[in-house]
Amino acid sequence: MATLNKSNEDLKLNKLFDVSNFIAIVTGGGTGIGLMITQALVINGAKVYITGRRQEALKSVVDQYNTGPGKIIALPQKDDVKRLAEEVASKESNGIHLLVNN
Fold this sequence. Notes:
This protein is α/β, with parallel strands linked by helices. It has helices at 13-16, 32-43, 55-65, 81-91; strands at residues 23-27, 47-51, 71-74, 98-100. The termini are far apart.
């Protein structure tokens, strides 16, 4: 049985939805809904790897929205998921916290 915490501090918005220090991957992070998700994560402190088909769109996102407190890192489109996973694993030895497969 769960114990009750009368103060409910852990349920405050700033803790419940805190993504500071999260590592995320957002596919299609260069445009549309993927871009909006990327922006929301970065402004709340996450490090976000974005992938997409158009390299110029990814570069534009990094140039425009990489203002912190989180960070955006563009990864070129991979032909298969295994290579994408290997590249991220080489950069993030502790893995990722969130995958948005947009």
